[in-house]
Amino acid sequence: GFNSSAVLGVPVLLVAASILCRRDHFIVLFVLSLVLTGMVGGARMGGEDVLASQATVLNQVLAVAVVLTTFALVGWALAEDIQTSLDAAAQENASHRITQQRLYHLSTHDELTGLTSRSHTRVMIENILGACAEERKQVAIMFLQINNLNSLRYS
After folding, report:
1. Residue 155 has pLDDT above 80, yes or no
2. Are the beta carbons of 124 and 141 closer than 8 angstroms?
3. At residue 116, what are phi and psi to the nearest 5 degrees?
4. Helix (H), strand (E) at residue 14
5. What is the pTM of this model?
6. What DSSP state is assigned to residue 115?
């Protein structure tokens, strides 16, 4: 009947489905829950429940349908709010990621030339030398010194 835990658990299932499922799956589940409500009511009117009058059963079917519809709408609204919040968080995360990448680049490269900074170059060389020492490989480093770089820079 309408008081069984299976029927009473359907609204909770609808809210969970609205949040977790695709929209078309949610709509199918909602329609099926309404059909199930009608079938239970029809079975009760058909004589399986002799004690219930047809008007009482119809009122119960309508009440359950209203409850299911209300929970479906609430679940749908919750799902929309959650999706909007998730989309906003994803956009903010992407913006932070771009900013972090830009800050890292600025901290490791000369802004004018785009070349790596001295400190970053030193760290890279130390990492390469350390890796080669661990793997017992040889490495060669060539330094190129450009005299009067400032005069080239400002000309």
Report:
1. no
2. no
3. -65, 150
4. helix 10-20
5. 0.49
6. P
